[in-house]
Design goal:
With 302 residues, the protein is mainly beta. It has two domains: 113 residues, no CATH class; 139 residues, no CATH class. The strands form two sheets. It has a 14-stranded mixed beta sheet with strand order 5-6-2-8-10-12-14-16-18-20-26-22-25-24, with no helix packed on it. It has a 13-stranded mixed beta sheet with strand order 1-4-7-3-9-11-13-15-17-19-21-27-23. A hairpin with a 3-residue loop joins strand 24 and strand 25. The longest helix has 19 residues. It starts with a helix and ends with a strand.
Length: 302
């Protein structure tokens, strides 16, 4: 092995040992009163973020930071009270090529408490995003983790470029999307707009108008009612389960598999097992199902 290569390896090993030796833990805490009629705006280059609604009237920001002392000393976190609400910002210092090769390990976790009725707008480039127990509009996005939304009353618009989306107990309209994972929604009553470019979509015990689209997986929807349903996948099966006494006008198309319905259909039209059109219970809100790469099953819930 060339001497220059040996020297480089020794230098890297020594640097890693030094980084571990100087690893540290830091915290950030700030509490400010929340202006009435305002909202929380959160922007961070790094870290996971959890936002929790409470009965208090303040915004409480807590951060746990772990990493080399040199890194922690350069992280900048600010919390400002403005007439339009509370703004939190966190900036990760640039570390050059050393950072890109993964040396100087670090982790940042934010936990933010807000008044329960405070709107939330949060974006992170470096981790998971969780919002729960909020009775107001919620907007958010992450470029590097999963999304969790729980117990939210109000409009929800959440996106991730790198993980799954899990939601439950949403009572307002919700738009949930991911470029790289599954979408799972349970026990929600608002209208749902669900999209993924790389995974499955699952709905269970939901009640509202539904539109779900995936480019790379299966769709399974167990719904409490038919308020209008559109399910589309380019790469998998569709399974739709509804109450026995539901009313609907159904149109289903499959380019790559069969279509079956366990509901009695009136005015049914079937073509080559790949197209089905008919009504259930005398007709009702439209159900449109389409897959380019799988089968379609329509079943009553047992």
């Amino acid at each position: 092995m060339a001497k220059s290569t040996v020297r480089a390896l020794v230098l890297i090993a020594a640097t890693l040992v030094s980084s571990c030796a100087f690893a540290a833990h830091g915290t950030y805490d700030r509490q400010v009163s929340a202006p009435a009629g305002g909202k929380l705006t959160f922007r961070t280059d790094v870290g996971s973020v959890t936002v929790v609604g409470t009965s208090g009237s303040d915004v409480v920001v807590h951060a746990d930071l772990q990493g080399p002392k040199s890194y922690l000393s350069r992280v900048r976190i600010t919390t400002e009270r403005t007439p339009s609400g509370v703004t939190v910002a966190a900036h990760e210092p640039s570390s050059g090529w050393f950072h890109w090769f993964g040396f100087g390990w670090h982790r940042v976790r934010f936990t933010v408490q807000v008044p329960k009725d405070y709107p939330v707008d949060v974006r992170t480039s470096g981790g998971d995003l969780t919002v729960r127990d909020v009775s107001a509009a919620v907007r958010g996005a992450t470029s590097g983790g999963g999304v969790v939304a729980e117990n939210i009353t109000g409009t929800v618009d959440l996106h991730t470029s790198g993980g799954s989306v899990d939601a439950q107990h949403l009572t307002g309209p919700a738009r949930l999307s991911t470029s790289g994972g599954n979408v799972h929604v349970v026990d929600s009553t608002g209208n749902l707009d669900l999209r993924t470019s790389g995974g499955d979509i699952r709905m269970r015990n939901d009640d509202g108008q539904v539109r779900a689209v995936t480019s790379g997986g299966d769709i399974r929807a167990q719904l409490r009612s038919n308020q209008g349903i559109t399910l589309k996948t380019d790469g998998g099966d569709i399974t739709l389960l509804l109450p026995q006494d539901m009313h609907a006008s159904i149109e289903a198309r499959s380019s790559g598999g069969g279509i079956t319905s366990d509901f009695p259909l009136s005015t049914a039209r079937i073509q080559s097992g790949h197209f089905l059109q008919g009504t259930v219970g005398g007709g009702g809100p439209p159900i449109a199902l389409h897959t380019s790469g799988g089968a379609i099953h329509i079943e009553p819930m047992r």
